[in-house]
Amino acid sequence: MSSRAQKPSLLSKKFSAQFSPIRISADMLEGDKPLAVYEFTNIFFPNLIPSIVTLLMDMERHSQRLIAAIAPLKRERLISDLEGVTVEIRYLIKDKGKELVALPINICPAEVLRNAVLAKRGSRYTEKMQEEINQILTSFITKEIRRRIKSMIEGTLKTLIAKPRMPATLKKLLSLGLIDREGRLDQGTTIEDLISGKYAELFKKVVPEELINEAMMLKETIKACYDWEGEDYLLSANEALAEKGILEIALGEIRGEGRAPKEANL
Amino acid sequence: MSDARALIYVPVLHTQKEAGEIFLSLKGDEAEKHVGTSSDEQEKSVKEMWDGIHEKIQNANISCSTMRIYQDAMPVCGREKEIAEKLAQKSSRNHQLILELVRKGASLEGTEDPELLIEEYDNLSQLISKAFVSMQSYRDSLNEYKEKGAKLMMQRDAFIAARIKSTLKEGETPLVFMGVRHELEKLLRGSFVINYIIYRLPFKKVGDIYNV
Hints:
Chain A is mainly alpha-helical.
């Protein structure tokens, strides 16, 4: 099988070696920079990124129709003349020289023409890639929503702590170290912990119900809109491998002792 | 005041680094399937996470001699300690921590029904066999696995909950290490006051989410 069989994917580590329309520094998601960049871009270059993506998608989508209008001989000559030519556009956002977002667009005109002649959809902007781009953008949105919910909850807790008669549950949260005297949440606490999991019972007693409901609603919205919640990815291929590995060792130990309950395919 | 006993719950997430180490120690062909390698940063995150859990358990001020440990994927077989030792040797921080607690006097209890674990193993084997063909193939097989796995996971959880209730002795505190896919808490809430020990799990960066 040739390497052509491997479809380009943003998820692939080797992707940049093939074609990489968007690259985002994962570290960027940790700080406040994405929001600032997003706000700046929205003010000065509204719809910039969606426009570029749409333009590229349209190019792919309509290229067949446009190129069909060119006479076959002229098309062949163009393909031959353009062989090896690449058009490269770079869109970069840097923070102190470190690349945060890169949108390197590489177009090979000969390849575009050739694909159009073969009536073949370009491999670069497939639906799958669009889906992956959506996922990356969704991760930004999710992060921002989480930040806002966290900030709302912390604001509420801070107000409650400042009251002369502090609710007993709040005292418990403080004593457990889940919040500090400023109402800030423990470093490891996630929004999911507060609204539906780990600390939900405790927080429910001190955080207004409307706030919890709002957070739940936002979470549901993300899930419904993007059908992506993050949990799917918890069971990554490596996670599955690790689980299998652990079971293999555990069950192998029983089998070694002749205690396996039935023959496993170990 | 409720009479319910306290239970310490440690949600466990296998990381790429840990997965890699466990798998590299296994048979070659499968180990080769391990996706990607961990960066120093990831390695640091894993270490920090387990150091944090370790510290929080210590700070919980529970005597090890009154601690009974229940562990995800630990079959009821009488060889629990040997299994933990093997996995600890394969660099599993989870099992290294368990062994440390056992050395200090904690009891390690067989937790899961071996029959159900074999079923889980077979399902995972099927999933993995398709996982490395392509991302799409993995997603398809993951959906299939999730459908099959949901019922199995409920059975596993029911067994574990019953096991905890039946083996826990008077004056003991259960320390439960469970993978994030389990929903054991739901079955334990009525009988125990659950205290979660969570250290900041490494934030799911894009790279982690997408297995890059």
